[in-house]
Specification:
The structure is a single chain. This protein has helices at about 60-75, 115-125, 165-170, 175-195, 250-255, 275-290; strands at about 10-15, 20-25, 35-40, 45, 50, 80-85, 95-100, 100-105, 105-115, 125-130, 130, 140-150, 150, 200-210, 215-220, 230. It has about 300 residues and is an alpha+beta fold. Strands 8, 9, 12, 13, 14, 15 and 16 form a 7-stranded antiparallel sheet that branches. Strands 1-2-3-7-6 form a 5-stranded antiparallel sheet. A hairpin with a 2-residue loop joins strand 4 (about 45) and strand 5. Helix 1 (about 60-75) runs parallel beside helix 6, helix 3 packs across helix 4 (about 175-195) and helix 5 (about 250-255) packs antiparallel against helix 6. It binds ligand PZK.
């Protein structure tokens, strides 16, 4: 098992997700500050709905630095929750101190390409989140235009359920629903343009928003391989699942006879061999370097 819950002096552990952890900084009296959170990205990786027991070195730092870079690219579109990346040495590089917001209870997803859950819905109904799509689309097709396909925030271990935009309107009211829809699509479009220029397709992305008073603020991580689907542009070929920019070595090895594991078994996947770890680490670093134009 990669790191058991880290003890960070001056912080209280709040919550652990599959691959990230949340802490609250303590005030002078040892009480959790109500206005700040520390988001810590681990080197854990998930595949086929399992968190693997083999960490990918530097994954947490790559994703944290990539997310910070994207927040800066998006600053003219939407304010964000980042306070500082100046954090304790134990988590430096892979943690961000953020403003605690009133989070909106919706997973905001926008899609440029049809795949994953959206494809399943389309195949069953001809529509995604109630948005009718042209007939005859296949896995990996480019959509006529980017679409907003929100989902519920399911508790950990459960899957988010797609919802219609009308449900978001009911939850948030019409004005706020339209604001998060338009922002989500604008973030996808900005990310898409930047990534495409660097040979990476951004198929879809999930973002989270919170409120600072009545202002909508971008939270969580943005446009990372954990929140988005990145595909190598030169391998794009609709009609079948596209290779993942970052996780393909892991998936290929896990589903190969070499792993001795099968998805359908329900068993915990085996530890990854060193070469798969190294190749996967290199893909995360390559994604960072191609997208940002900076050396990791
Ligand atoms: C918040 N998460 C998900 C993220 C995890 C879990 N700015 C904020 N204010 C209030 N709450 C959150 C945020 C943010 N971002 C985000 N849960 C609550 C999450 C990172 C690690 F374990």
């Amino acid at each position: 098992m990669p790191d058991a819950t880290l003890v960070l002096p001056g912080y209280a552990h709040v919550y652990s997700g599959k691959v990230r952890d949340l802490y609250a900084p303590l005030d002078a009296g040892g009480e959790p500050r109500p206005d700040r959170l520390l988001l810590v990205a681990s080197d854990r990786i998930s595949a086929y709905d399992f968190v693997l027991d083999t960490p990918i070195p530097d994954k947490g730092e790559v994703l944290t630095r990539l997310s910070l870079w994207w927040f800066a690219q998006l600053e003219d579109l939407v304010p964000n929750h980042v306070v500082t990346a100046d954090v304790p040495d134990a988590v430096r590089g892979r943690a961000v101190l953020v403003e605690r917001l009133d989070m909106l209870p919706v997973e905001c997803v926008a899609r440029a390409y049809l795949t994953g859950g959206g494809l399943g819905e389309y195949t069953a109904t001809g529509a995604v989140s109630g948005i009718p799509l042209p007939a005859g689309l296949v896995d990996g097709d480019l959509l006529p235009e980017p679409i907003f396909t929100p989902s519920t925030k399911a508790p950990m271990g459960e899957h988010d359920e797609p919802i219609h935009y009308s449900v978001v309107e009911g939850q948030l009211g019409g004005a706020l629903a339209a604001r998060v829809r338009d922002l989500t699509v604008a973030i996808l479009e900005r990310g898409y343009e930047i990534a495409a220029a660097r040979g990476i397709l951004l198929a879809d992305t999930k973002v989270e928003f919170g409120l600072r008073g009545d202002e909508v603020v971008l939270a969580d991580e943005v446009l990372t391989p954990d929140s988005s689907r990145f595909w190598p542009a030169d391998q794009w070929e609709p009609g079948h699942p596209q290779p993942s920019f970052d996780k393909q070595y892991v998936r290929d090895w896990l589903t190969s006879s070499a792993s001795g594991w099968s998805k359908a078994s329900g068993e915990t996947p085996p530890s990854l061999p060193d070469d798969v770890v190294g190749q996967t680490r290199a893909k995360y670093v390559e994604a960072y370097e191609r997208l940002t134009g900076e050396t990791f």
